[in-house]
Amino acid sequence: MTQMSMVEAIRDALDVMMTRDKRVIVYGEDVGYFGGVFRCTQGLQQKHGRERCFDAPISESGIVGTAIGMAAYGLRPCVEIQFADYMYPAYDQITQEAARIRYRSGGDFTCPLVIRMPTGGGIFGGETHSQSPEALFTHVSGLKTVLPSNPYDVKGLLIAAIEDPDPVIFMEPKRLYHGPFDGHHEREVVSWKDHPLAEVPEGHYTIPLGKAAIRREGSDLTVLCYGTMVHVALAAAREQGIDAEIIDLRSLLPLDLETIEASVQKTGRCVIAHEATLTSGFGAELAARVQEACFFHLEAPVRRVAGWDVPYPHAQEWFYFPGPERVGRAFLETMEV
Amino acid sequence: MQDERKTRITIPEPEVRPGDEPDFSDVNIPEAGAVSLPPLDVEPRLLRNHAFSIIRILRRDGEAVGPWAKMLSDEELLFGLKHMMTLRLLDARMVAAQRQGKTSFYVPQLGEEAVTIAFQRALRDGDMNFPTYRNAGLLIAQDYPLETMMNQIFSNEKDPLGGRQMPVLYSAKDHGFFTVSGNLGTQFVQSVGWAMAAAIDGSDKIAAGWIGDGSTAEGDFHSAMVFASTYKPPVVLNIVNNQWAISTFQGIAKGESGTFAARALGFGMAALRVDGNDFLAVHAVARWAVERARKGLGPTVIEHVTYRVGGHSTSDNPEAYRPKAESDAWPLGDPIERLKLHLIGRNLWSEERHAQAHAEIRDTVVAAQKAAEKNGTLHSGPSPRRRSIFDGLYEETPIHLERQRQAAEKWL
Fold it and tell me: Would you place residue B412 in the very low, low, confident or very high pLDDT band (cuts 50, 70, 90)?
């Protein structure tokens, strides 16, 4: 076991896979010599050669489009989109090409491809470096969407994603890259050091896509969350003295319906928290699933805490971000009913 | 005030519209044999003339002339003629089948048969095309079973794509034919990625990308050109300029000056412009570009200058936007007639043999159609199982989709 930040765990996963499997190719904007603007690919070009880790032109449709061609050839490209906010030029290639190649060709061609992208706010990135567009991927038939919350998970999930036979959108909460941020922006920054989930095994291991993790067992209510909001929810439960069962979904699609349903049927209450905007967000899907499967167990309305339905603002970032106070208030209101 | 206006936008318009006399006087057609044959390792910047002129071999009288000639054996020429005839007869039968309600849609390649058939004969097994919906000749040139193509067109029980795709969006990996998308231009950049992978893998396979004149306006065209010029993978990028993008003439995608091939020059890539209705010229240019790619000398962009004689698809009526007889006036003629004239001139073919071949090919196509129709057509006979729509989206079906499949059982 080694102590790692999320950045180090991502780099380690890429290194492990590039070492094990010659088919794994890594590229993206600033990814080669420099090692990525968030340093996730640092040293990989030096170690594995320029043909296996290289800089790409500023052309997201080109990065994903060429990666689809590589995947069709039989390689295992793992490309980086510098910010999730930059993925829109590639959206056609992702949604109408990568997602459908297996299906539309009757299995003649497949597209084993991983598209990594930093997601979420908390770094004063404004509207174009803070978005959480996960629902734009979960709405697309044929994609898998993964969104880890800690170093241990990110390595096991990234290795599983690279080994997956289908295209995987791999979203990395950028505010968690260097520490388990719980939304208390006014406090001193905490690093991953000494966090139990920063203990990362060496070498190869996987976490299956589609298995949620229960971060805290509890009986008062169920919290469905992922990414940064897992840490925010843990803080909110602690601060409000709520015995919350906090479920880290880890993978949004495939979705661990069984874990979700068992928990809500047990607690009878459910709060959903995500950083993305509320309307038509992934929380809407979760709320619908919960009421379909758990209606007769529910003691209170399912409540959502999310980003406001406006573009991510720059100066007002912390008013926008659904921090522990807003999440904690939702817990209390759900318990009042 | 209007007179003082200094700026205005240009809306390019074709020379003629319905009711006008066809006019191709602005299409500059050089003499056959006039364009030089450059060495494979030529510096791309020296190919300016090749990007603006048109490489042609067949003269009006059918004689093959110039430095690009004599690359094909007699057998290959006869093969090409027969396969162009096959594609044309397939088109005619399938357009009729669409009118009869046996399928929803069809895309004919009438007038453009030489482009894909001559090109494919320059590729090897293991190479990969990234085609558009008007590239069925790539399959015909490999004797891909007509019945299988028709099974797909009819979306019947034996459709290899299980009824999921619109007609003509074939997929045939073992024939180097990537699954065709109904979107435009996406495959062009994918071909560059496939070629990058082939080179990284150390194989000697090459990729061929395909795009139409209209779709060169898409961002993915630019992405493909950037990636191809940056990484120089073994790819041949084909632009089929058939003059029309549904009802929109090529000047809307290109503007009123330059050529599509010339777009490659700005990227520092080799560019060739070829008479797309000259079977010999298309093949010669393809051979040059394919060999160059396979030797690691870099990508080549080829503009095939041709004319879409038919409608864009069976849903289109070209008489609404261009003169009815425009295709007769097309100065590069008909690819089948031109190759036929060449072969007759060399005593390799005759009108009698042509008529006989036509009858034989028609019988083959009709027989394939009869066999395919036994497997069903879009609205009658055996069809793909409805419940199969839940299969094969992922290698392993996720739980939400499995539950949906079970819930849908009551609707079957």
Answer: confident
> What distance in Å separates the CA atoms of residue A264 and residue A291, rounded to the nearest whole number?
10
Q: What is the CA radius of gyration of chain A?
A: 19
Q: What is the DSSP string of A154-196?
A: HHHHHHHHHH-SS-EEEEEEGGGSSS---S-TTSPP--STT-G
Asked if A65 lies within 8 A of B161 by C-beta distance, the reply is no
> What is the spatial distance between Cα B227 and Cα B211, in angstroms, rounded to a whole number?
16
- Cβ of A93 within 8 Å of Cβ of B400? The answer is no
SS3 B274: strand
ipTM: 0.97
End-to-end alpha carbon distance in chain B? 68
Q: Is there a contact between A59 and B169 if contact means CB atoms under 8 Å apart?
A: no
H-type alpha helices, B256-322: 279-294
Interface with A, mutate which of B181, B189, B203, B403 (most A CBs under 10 A): B189
Residue A65 is nearest to which of B161, B220, B403, comparing CB atoms?
B220
Closest-CA residue of B relative to A22 is: B201
Residue A75: C-alpha distances to residues A16, A18, A48, A111, B271 (Å)? 16, 11, 15, 9, 29
Taking an 8 Å cut-off on Cβ atoms, the answer to whether A73 and B194 are in contact is: yes
How close A328 gets to chain B, by Cα (Å)?
A: 30
CB contact under 8 A, A73 and B128: yes
DSSP string, B211-230: EETGGGGSHHHHHHHHHHHH
- pLDDT for res B26: 86
Q: Which residues of chain A have pLDDT under 50?
A: none
Three-class DSSP category at A325: helix
- Which of B173, B193, B398 lies closest to A253 in CB terms? B398
B179, B180, B226, B395: best mutation site toward chain A, by most A Cβ within 10 Å? B179
Cα A184 to Cα A122: distance, rounded to the nearest angstrom: 10
Q: At what angle do helices B74-99 and B279-294 cross, to 10 degrees?
A: 110
pLDDT at A11 (0 to 100): 98
Please tell me the distance from the alpha carbon of residue B307 to that of residue B330, in angstroms, as a whole number.
7
- Assess whether pLDDT exceeds 80 at residue B1: no
Chain A nearest C-alpha distance from B273 (Å): 25
Tell me if the pTM is above 0.95.
yes
The DSSP output letter for A300 is S
Q: Do A59 and B230 touch (CB under 8 A)?
A: no
> Between chain A and chain B, how many beta carbons pairs sit less than 8 Å apart?
147
> Given this model, what pLDDT does residue B2 score?
60
* Prior bond of B131 cis (ω within 30°): no
Q: What is the pLDDT of residue B305?
A: 98
